[in-house]
């Protein structure tokens, strides 16, 4: 019986890097969240606006971490070899980059929010950036796309239709 082919180094490397990346961003999220929570709970006087900003920041971090975690599900073979490492979180063209950006922005807003709660307004960059990406990647190319070129057969059909319309107008 032949031994099963070992998974390529690429899949093993992707799996290892995904686990490290996920751990790094999870620890960063939890650290900044606990630091912000305990600082405002114990040291600073806070209002409902601060807690609303904190809640939206936590929601963004949680959604990004869970999305990243769902993308790195590893498929292993019967002998424990890695068949599929999941999505590469470190690929600059993948959605993992956007998730990491969300976590970084939330962590920065929480840490700067320790200086003044007005830094929580940095979270308003999410919808602004989302609208920008929607415009650049979806709406603008659709609106400003050139019409498809007509085939020579379509031109002939259009001329025949126009000739028929001219005949029926009399």
Automatic annotation (TrEMBL):
Q: Which positions, given as ranges, span the membrane?
A: 21-44, 50-68
Could you give one GO CC term from the UniProt record?
Answer: endoplasmic reticulum membrane
User: Membrane topology for this entry?
Assistant: Multi-pass membrane protein
What's the superkingdom here? Eukaryota
What biological processes does GO assign it?
Answer: vacuolar protein processing
Q: What is its main location?
A: endoplasmic reticulum
Q: Which UniProt keywords apply?
A: Endoplasmic reticulum, Membrane, Transmembrane, Transmembrane helix
Residues in the signal sequence? none
Where does the record place Basic residues bias?
Answer: 158-170
Return the similarity comment: Belongs to the TMEM208 family.
Entry protein name? Transmembrane protein 208
């Amino acid at each position: 019986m032949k031994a099963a082919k070992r998974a390529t180094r690429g899949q093993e490397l992707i799996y290892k890097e995904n686990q490290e990346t996920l751990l790094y961003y999870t620890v960063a999220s939890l650290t900044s969240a606990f630091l912000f929570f305990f600082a405002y709970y114990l040291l600073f006087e806070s209002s409902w606006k601060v807690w609303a900003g904190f809640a939206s920041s936590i929601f963004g971090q949680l959604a990004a971490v869970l999305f990243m975690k769902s993308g790195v599900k590893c498929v292993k073979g019967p002998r424990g070899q890695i068949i599929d490492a999941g999505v590469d979180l470190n690929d600059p063209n993948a959605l993992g980059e956007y998730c990491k950006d969300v976590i970084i922005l939330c962590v920065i807003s929480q840490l700067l929010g320790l200086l003044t709660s007005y830094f929580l307004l940095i979270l308003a960059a999410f919808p602004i950036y989302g609208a920008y990406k929607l415009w650049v990647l979806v709406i603008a190319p659709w609106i400003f796309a050139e019409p498809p070129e007509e085939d020579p057969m379509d031109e002939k059909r259009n001329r025949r239709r126009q000739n028929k319309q001219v005949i029926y107008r009399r």
